[in-house]
Amino acid sequence: MMRDAQSLVDALRDPVTVLSLDGAGWTDLISIARAESLIGSLAHRLANITVPEQVRPILKDAIQATDLARQQALWEADCARRALASLNCKVVLMKGTAYVAGDLDAGIGRSIGDLDIMAAQDSLPAVEEALLDAGWEWVKPDPYDDQYYREHMHELPPLIHRERDRMIDVHHTTLPLTAKPTPNPQAMLDAAVKLDSGLYVMSPADMLLHSVAHLFADGDLAGGLRNLWDIDRLVRQFSGADEEFWTELGVRARLHQLEPHLARAIRLAARLYDTPVDKYRGGHTRFADYLYIRRLLARDGWGRESRKFIRQAFYIRSHWLRMPPLMLARHLWTKWRKG
Amino acid sequence: MHQLYLTVGPTRYRLVSAWQRPLDQLAALYQNYPVSQDGYADFTVRLEPEKPWRRYIRPSVHISGDFWLPDAAPLPLDQSLLAAEMGMNLQMALGWRRHLLLHASSVEKDGKVLLMTGLSGSGKSTLSAMLAEKGWRFMGDEFALLDPDTGMVHSFPRLISLKNEAIAAMRAIVPENRFGPLMKGTPKGDIRHVIPPQNAVNRMADTAKPALLLFPRFGHDPALRDMGKSEIFVRLTQASTNYVALGETGFRALTHFVDTVPTKAMDYQSGDQAEDLIDSLWSELP
Q1: Mean pLDDT of residues grouped by 10 in chain B (286 residues)?
Q2: Is the whole model's pTM more than 0.90, yes or no?
Q3: Counted domains in chain A
Q4: How many CB pairs under 8 A join A and B?
């Protein structure tokens, strides 16, 4: 049994590496890819490789499943567009839905769950009302959670559509208000690019930086291999299409206070996925990078989470990053009392 | 951790378990199924302790795998065989895309398939097990796999899962050596598995054309009723675990099925009554 997710990273980076797998190796790879929500991306990456006949239908299923996810994500985005059309505010798609709406390589084979959108903070009350009118409902009726979201988070409490059973997260910025870096949401909105549908996606540099912020500051690296794969795809596509991309990226990283985060993301992406970063100075490998890699690869060939200690350490760290210590204590106390 | 590979119909499983016992029980019950030793599998099912110490102290089995539900309740170790079967069903329900899955039993005669679907307690599983002892080929008591391209039904003859009163009823016509251990007081009541007849296993790759769909209902005076196509369609969307996940493919497969397969609601109070009703319908088929 494989001890970590290295085989998945290898297959994504260099598809011919799968040619050396035996049957059990393939089964391990598939379990890991499913657990990391990368099975669709993997299936597309292996499109030109002759895979064993036992594996072919599994990859075909994954492609069809993510094709449908794409269609549903676009439909859900359009439902939100119609619900918000009369408000005349910019609605910016984020993450997976943005990648498929912008027809980007990062969207190929990507699994997409909730719809994430961003709107200006002062338009949020109107957005909230319009969504409630159009059939979305609160997921968490708990008053503490509700208040917590409104005071400290970068998004409204999650809403779910009562008929389609799909969630929407409405962001007004990209990181929790309690986190240390403070990206500039107004600059993101101003630079957003309009699509034919009337919806917006972030500008290339901002989109990449949001992906970076999402990878590090907003979580415990759960789903990290997938987020880092997004980053790899975005970097390749944007830097290949625009010579000025790296310069622009540096400027925007400074503006959004995400320079160290970007540097680390680029180092990790280059290390795991061979992301071309020749025009970017990400600095030297740090010892902490080694811990990040250990954490990112913590998945065994049966699809289980492994390396419990390092996982726990990153989990605690994720809360630490989100909240000052006293607030964290108060938050955990409240959550514990409520069970 | 221990490992076992199983093949049921078109699906290959890898089961990994913290305990040897459920795998030994499965290996015994599936001993006449085709063996695969090349390491490939469509799905991995995992049986692990809910918490590390629950491996030994009041052991409890948490079901997971490639596909899983966040709120699946753990089962005690003496129901681990049930846990394994639930884990395998879960992979199909959430992950299988090569066929439209109908929560239905299926049996075949003369190259034609009788499907039975309905709520838990309708008797669809018991009826299929009973017919399998009377000249029909058993194709499955849990999922019928409908090929969206050909419209044919694929066999998925996993172990037959008998509940409560059905156990004694089947014990009367099936020899003891085809029964698995009795599991009392499971979330679904008493459960005992039965190994399907050997020809069901030998012929599990043979597909057949759907010829009749029944919605059985146990406990009412024997009767057959027509059903409207829209009602049949809606009830089958509810009986399918992957209708939504297949998108347009699922819609096309199901509308074709409803348009072409004769369907009746069937009330009955005993196995013999059901058999008579089924025989009368079967003899009138084209």
Answers
A1: 96 96 96 93 95 81 94 90 96 97 97 94 93 96 97 97 93 95 94 97 97 96 97 97 95 98 96 96 93
A2: yes
A3: 1
A4: 50
